[in-house]
């Protein structure tokens, strides 16, 4: 009887583990596929010769944002829309560096944990998106403009 209980527990744990891994792989495969497609499009449609960073943005419109080096060692950022067309190209030097984005976070929310900083686009305006949890444990999306760091929008959950 004891062997049966142990066998059932082992099988049950195995099924739960298998389903968890399967769900995780399904959730991340779409993102990885989008990132591979973004890199491929960057090489095909732009002067990028080496991809450095890829951000996938799913706001009101889907964008793949690729930052990379050109043959002349210039760092550029391209925004590719869901129709796989480049809608914006900027030199990285024209915008705020990723490392300095937090300096522009001006909010009364008192960020407790920064989850991510990534490029985005809304209303054809290149943006930085800062995801953070505030002191009240609310999840925040805070947007500033790519070039000047001016406040654009804040969404709180």
Explained architecture:
The chain has about 160 residues and is an alpha+beta fold. It has one helix at about 1-45, and strands spanning about 50-60, 60-70, 75-80, 85-90, 115-120, 125-135, 140-145, 150-155. It is built from 1 helix and 8 strands, in the order αββββββββ. The strands form 2 sheets. A 4-stranded antiparallel beta sheet has the order 1-2-3-4. The chain has a 4-stranded antiparallel beta sheet with strand order 5-6-7-8, with no helix packed on it. β3 and β4 form a beta hairpin.
Keywords:
157 residues; alpha+beta; 4-stranded antiparallel beta sheet; extended
Quick structural overview:
The protein has 157 residues and is α+β, with helices and mostly antiparallel strands.
Distance between the termini: 50 Å
Please report the total strand number as a whole number. 8
Strand order of the largest sheet: 1-2-3-4
The low-pLDDT segments are: none
User: What's the gyration radius in Å?
Assistant: 21 Å
What's the multimeric state?
single chain
Structural class: alpha+beta
Helix content: 25-40%
State which percent range the strand residues make up. Answer: 35-45%
Shape: extended
User: Number of helix segments?
Assistant: 1
Arithmetic mean of pLDDT: 91
Largest sheet: 4 strands, antiparallel
Element order: H for helix, E for strand:
HEEEEEEEE
Sequence-ordered SSE layout with sheet pairings:
Blueprint: H1 2-45, E1 48-58, E2 62-70, E3 75-81, E4 86-91, E5 113-122, E6 125-133, E7 139-145, E8 151-156
Antiparallel strand pairs: 1-2, 2-3, 3-4, 5-6, 6-7, 7-8
